[in-house]
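Batch manifest, entry 17 of 40.
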Amino acid sequence: MFDGFTAETLARMQFAFTISFHIIFPAFSIGLASFLAVLNARWLWTGDDTFRVLFDYWKKIFAVAFGMGVVSGIVMSYQFGTNWSVFSDKAGPVLGPLMAYEVLSAFFLEAGFLGIMLFGRKRVGNGLHMFATGMVAFGTLVSATWILSVNSWMQTPAGFGMNDVGQFIPLDWWQIVFNPSFPYRLVHMVLAAFLTTALVVGAVGALHLLRDRSDNPSRRMFSMAMWMLVLVTPLQILAGDLHGLNTLEHQPAKVMAMEGHYDSHENGAPLILFGIPNPAEKRIDYSIEIPKLSSLILKHDLNAPLAGLDTIPDEDEPPVAIVFFSFRVMIGLGFAMLGLGLWGLWARLRERLFDAPLLHRAAIAMGPTGFIAVLAGWITTEVGRQPYTVYGLLRTSDSLAPVAAPAVAASLVAFIVVYFFVFGAGTFYILRMMGQPVKVVSAQPLRDDAPTRTAGTTPVAQSQAKGDN
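Output type: C-alpha cells
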C-alpha cells in the first residue's frame, strides 16, 4: 500500500493524519465551552429558561467532543517518542516544559471542573456551578495558549541557546513563550475556534427551524450564531492579515509559496487568485491575477518589490502546491463565512431571520466549513514550515527517529483503521445528538433551582413576544 515511501514521508503522513483528527475537536470544544459559559451566565442573569435548556442540550455534545479531543491528543503525543525521538531529544529542553505546563495548568483545570459543570448544578448550587463552567472555558483557552506557544516557537524560535550535544536549551522563557509569531497565531486560532462553533450552532439551529419555525430554543441559538458570525469574521480577517505580515517578516518562503510567487517582482507583485503550480517549470499555470495587489496587501504599496522563490535554494523551498491550494481554501471559506453573516444581518433587519428557508439551508451547508478552514489553515502553517521542524535550524530529515519504513507504514495503517472506527462512531453519535430536537420551552413559572425574578410576565414570555431577534 505504501511501497516506495521513505520512513520520513510515512512518519510525516502519520503525524498529519493524527493531528488532522485531533485539531477538529479542540477547535470545536474551545468555542463550545465559551458558548456554554455565555448560556449559563445569561440564564442566571435573565432567568430566561431557554438558555438553561440550550445549556443542557449543548453540554452533552461538549462532553463527547472533549473526550475525543483528549484521547486523540494523547495518542498523537506518543509519536514524539516513536517516530520523532531525535526531535524530542534536541528540542525537548525547550518544548518539554511548555507541554508540561499545558497539562498542569490547563488540562487539570478543565478536568477538575468538568464533572461539576456536567453533573453538579443541584449539588453545588448555581454560583459554584457557574464558576466551574467558567473555569472549563478558561481552561480550554489556557490549553490553546500553551500549545500555540509550542508551535509558534517551532515557527519563530527565540530565547534559546545550543549546548555541546546540539540540544536547544532555554535562556529566556519570556522570549520562548512570547516568541514573535505567538500573539498572532493565538488570536487567529481562538477566533477560528469561535467561528467553527458558531457555524455548527447556526447549522443545528437552522435545521430545527426548518422543522419548526416557532421553536424558541432553536430561534435563540440561530440568532446568537448569526451575531457571532457577523461580528467575529471581520476580526478574523483582520487577524489573518496581521498574521500574514508577521509571517512575511519571519518566514518569507512560506508567504512566497502561499502567494505562488516563483519569481521576484521588482515593481509590484500580482495577487494570484487561482492557478495550478508547476514545480518543474517554476511557474503558476493558467493563473488568474490582479496586477500589483499582492504588494499592496503585503507591503501597503502597489509598487513595492517582493522577493520570490527564485531567491530560495531548492532544498529549502516548501511544497508549493499544497501550501498554495490550502491557503486559498482557508481564505475562500473565510469570505463565505462573512457572506453568511451579512446575509443573516440583512434578514434580521428585515425581521425575516427565522422565516428565511434559503438562509437556513445555506447555514446548514456552511456548518462543517469551520473545520475545513481550520484544517486548511493548519496545513498552510505546517507544510509551509518545511523542510524544517524548528524553522531554519533543525531540518525534518534530521528530526526522524531511526525507524524502518515498514514499521511506520504498519502503524499508519493501524491508526487509519482505529481512528475511522472510533472517531467515526463518536462523530456519528454527536451528529445524532445534534439531530434531536431541543425541548420546547413554554412560558411557565421557573423551577425551584432557577434564579429568582420579580413578579410579572416571565422572561420566556417576554422573549417570545419580542420574537427573539
